[in-house]
Design goal:
This protein is an alpha+beta fold. The protein has one domain. Helices cover 24% and strands 26% of the residues. The protein is globular, with a radius of gyration of 14 Å. The N and C termini lie far apart (32 Å).
């Protein structure tokens, strides 16, 4: 079974919190339905000992947004290879493959509007740059 430190991974304590990424998505939250955090059934690696969390919110009474931090590597190049199996994408480029998104060394999944995805990417870029 893969451990978090395999595949160029970093300690999960250093991973971005899905709740903080979700908080970057603009819009009015339904006060009766606070943002929720739950365990994801399926991670980036089948059989991984690490269980990723998913954060979920209903925004503006219509849109649902879900953010899952799938994996984080020490080097963006390692995340690039994990994401699509091919090296070569510049480390500072955002990359999409199979419903997942890479920003630096962080691989996330965002389900929601394009605006929600852009907000999560922006938050990740600011975190990766710091």
């Amino acid at each position: 079974m893969p451990e978090p430190l395999e595949y160029g991974g970093v300690d999960p304590e250093s991973w971005p919190d899905c709740a903080a990424l979700l908080a970057a998505v603009p819009g009015k939250r339904d006060p009766g339905r606070p943002d929720a955090k739950r365990i994801v059934d399926d991670g980036l690696f089948s059989g991984a000992t690490l269980v990723p969390f998913s954060c979920y919110a209903r925004i503006d009474d219509a849109e649902s947004v879900e953010v899952v931090v799938m994996w984080m590597t020490k080097r963006p190049e390692d995340a690039d290879v994990l994401l699509d199996g091919r090296p070569g994408t510049p480390p500072d480029a955002d990359e999409y493959a199979g419903g997942n998104l890479r920003v630096g060394g962080v691989i996330v999944q965002v389900q929601g509007s394009d605006e929600a995805e852009r907000a999560v990417v922006k938050r990740l870029r600011s975190r990766v740059a710091s």
